[in-house]
């Protein structure tokens, strides 16, 4: 099942080729080189998603405008996927850290509320006298 609508395979190879502005045979070559991975029907018909079309356009831009060969394109696309995955993981870790920070703040506030004595910050190196409270307090 596709993660989102952009990943839903819906276009047959001829339509995908037109949308990407290339020949269907080029799409087959890109699939063979594992640059794009279309979905398949039960009868093994290739179906391309909007995400696949974007990938094809990226490949075309890299090869035609930037002069990158297909081996370079493959490396660039793999690195792009890794960066996206790391960004996702980073976002998840930031959310987790924020949740834990909020929980810790709440726990600290609860300790402060339940602590009966006043907390006094003393500058480093100063000497203070502590008076004993009478047992009647």
Keywords:
mainly alpha; Multidrug-efflux Transporter Regulator, Chain: A, Domain 2
Describe the structure.
The protein is an all-alpha fold and 137 residues long. It has a single domain, classed as Multidrug-efflux Transporter Regulator, Chain: A, Domain 2 (Orthogonal Bundle), CATH 1.10.1660. The chain has helices at residues 13-20, 24-32, 50-65, 70-114; strands at 39-40, 46-47. The longest helix is centred in the C-terminal third of the chain and has 45 residues, at 70-114. The protein is elongated. The mean pLDDT is 89.
Mean pLDDT: 89
- Tell me the structural class: mainly alpha
What is the third-level CATH name, the topology? Answer: Multidrug-efflux Transporter Regulator, Chain: A, Domain 2
Helix fraction? 55-70%
Strand line-up of the largest beta sheet: 1-2
Separation of the first and last Cα atoms? 68 Å
Q: Radius of gyration, Cα only, in angstroms?
A: 30 Å
Write the element-wise H/E pattern from the N-terminal end onward.
HHEEHH
Q: In percent terms, what proportion of residues is strand?
A: under 5%
Number of domains: 1
Total beta strands: 2
CATH architecture: Orthogonal Bundle
Point out poorly predicted stretches. Answer: none
Chain-wise SSE layout:
Layout: H1 13-20, H2 24-32, E1 39-40, E2 46-47, H3 50-65, H4 70-114
Antiparallel strand pairs: 1-2
Helix pairs in contact: 1-3
In short:
This protein has 137 residues and is mostly helical. The chain is built from four helices and two strands; from the N terminus they run ααββαα.
């Amino acid at each position: 099942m596709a993660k989102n609508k952009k990943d839903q395979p819906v276009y047959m190879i001829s339509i995908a080729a037109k949308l990407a502005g290339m020949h269907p045979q080029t799409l087959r070559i890109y699939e063979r080189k594992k640059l794009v991975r279309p979905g398949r029907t039960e009868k093994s018909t290739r179906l391309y998603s909007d995400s696949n079309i974007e990938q094809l356009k990226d490949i075309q831009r890299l090869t035609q405008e930037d002069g990158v060969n297909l081996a370079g394109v493959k490396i660039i696309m793999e690195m792009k996927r890794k960066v996206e995955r790391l960004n996702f993981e980073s976002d998840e870790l930031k959310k987790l850290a924020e949740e834990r920070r909020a929980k810790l703040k709440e726990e600290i506030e609860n300790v402060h509320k339940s602590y009966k004595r006043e907390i006094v910050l003393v500058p480093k190196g100063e000497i203070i006298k502590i008076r004993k409270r009478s047992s009647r307090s």
